[in-house]
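Can anyone check this?
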Amino acid sequence: MIRSLRFRLPVLFLAGIILAGIVAAVTAARLFQEVTRTDSLTELRRQAAGLADLYAEQALQTAGQGRNAPRFAAARLERATGTTLYYAGLDLFPGSESGLRRLSPKTLPNQAAFEEGRAQTFEFRPPGQDRVYLAAAEPLQIGGQTFGFLVAAKPRAEIRERWQLLVERLGLAFLLGLAVAGGLVWYLSRRLTAPVVALTRATEEVARGRYDVELPRTRKRDEIGRLTDSFRDMTRRLAEADARERNFLMSVSHELRTPLTAIRGHVAMLEEGVVDDPAALQASLDVIRSETDRLARLVGDLLDLARLDAHRFTLAEDEVELRRLLEGAYQSRAEEARRRGIDYEERFHADPVLHTDGDRVLQIVTNLIDNAFHWTPDGGRIAVGLESANGSVAVTVSDTGPGIARADRERIFRPFFSGDHAGGTGLGLAIARELAQALGGELLLDSEPGAGSRFELRLPAL
């Protein structure tokens, strides 16, 4: 369970969400803390500056009248501003008379700023206090002479309480968001992993040789949908390949058994001395020779097909006079054409020279001519043609046989295609197409039932 994708995927997503939430919360809290501190110090400086101006103005008005230093309600000012007020400086402006708490100038951390009469912000711990305060000190001046500083301070804990409240709210929002995200992640992981689990089970079934597996129906064209469709197509092709393999083995067994049975029967008759007549004896020997040749052709075709399928077929490259090669193939069946009354003609309109494997080209053309003679009835017509145009050459073999249905145009190029293969191995067209592709060309077919067939071998001219 822990190692399954259905478990690890939500955990990984949630871990990423938690990490991102923690980073965001820490960043937000830190930023809020800095902003709050900056705003607090700015507010303290503004309050200290305003009160310092107020005290200095009143002190200036009363100094020439011989009156005491101004007395303000410091406690009321503190309640109004929310800060604690202090005075640090000379006794020319006594804090006890002004209602302000006194601080020693040594409390101020920046003594240079104190001596120069410059405003400053700082943290300090007031005498008799346990808390640390944020403070802003503004100079008190009369006639351009600084005689002390007015200090506005606020406990740092108040600022901390503000950003701690923010952290609590962020944490609550994070938990709620995590719960929602967890639900969405669980839902999405189920949607994502369910097809993967189904595909895994289907893969195990296919590995056992069962191709009729059920796959989930996918309506979306996402990666999972395309993967499911590809897997479904793969199982279909595997089923077809398995069926073709079984048919192939059955066909090979049949093709081998037929000549072997004939050879075994005639050999048995010869061994038992059943055949005494010299003519009958010669007939039996002719049958044995013919069936042996048939076996040799079948084995040779099977070896060629196996090499082509395994891409272990080697090709020679020579200068081939294609017209001369075709004339030889054409003449090899001229006698049979005359004997069967077939109108057999050649239509050679080019004389190209190719750099290719002449033996394999001859094998393709011979297979096409053999196929034409097999299907063409006596008194029919067969034509072998040669043309050259647009950087390629075309060798055509046409016949007036029964033609090929549209549904069978691809199937006839499969080994041992069901049909009348009497007198042949049923591998000729399959080998012809594979050889054509190996030579860098293609084998095309144009046929209609009842109108004959036309095979065209196209090869590159250069």
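Reply from J.R.: I decoded it. The mean pLDDT is 79.
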